[in-house]
């Protein structure tokens, strides 16, 4: 029976992380609720930049993607456009990244930008006008 306790102890020791993960939860500042973007244009998404403690310590594998709220009946449901990645592999320590608004999306007043990674932070709803 002692061998079983040793196996369990080894499994638990292996499962414990050797270092603490750093999770950064940046607030998306731009776009905001007053923002109007047009399809085909390039814009900058702005997040709270990292503080000095984290800058330069590691590269981020986050990405921005589109979402909108499709209004069926009630309640609102999120319509994810996960096949339209706007940016990926950018460095969050800069606090911004450029994106090009896709040309194949309809005019709506309820788009959001989502920062995928550990955070899943979303911007306020904003408008995109299809030219």
From TrEMBL:
Keywords annotated in UniProt: Signal
UniProt signal peptide: 1-15
Protein name: Secreted protein
């Amino acid at each position: 029976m002692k061998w079983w306790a040793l196996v369990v102890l080894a499994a638990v020791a292996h499962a414990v992380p050797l270092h603490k993960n750093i999770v950064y939860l940046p607030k998306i500042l731009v776009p905001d609720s007053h923002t109007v973007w047009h399809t085909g244009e390039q814009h900058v998404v702005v997040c709270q930049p990292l503080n000095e403690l984290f800058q330069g310590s590691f590269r981020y594998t986050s990405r921005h993607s589109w979402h909108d709220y499709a209004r069926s009946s009630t309640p609102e449901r999120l319509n994810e456009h996960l096949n339209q990645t706007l940016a990926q592999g950018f460095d969050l320590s800069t606090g911004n990244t450029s994106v090009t608004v896709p040309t194949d999306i309809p005019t709506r007043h309820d788009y959001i930008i989502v920062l995928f990674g550990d955070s899943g932070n979303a911007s306020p709803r904003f408008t995109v006008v299809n030219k």
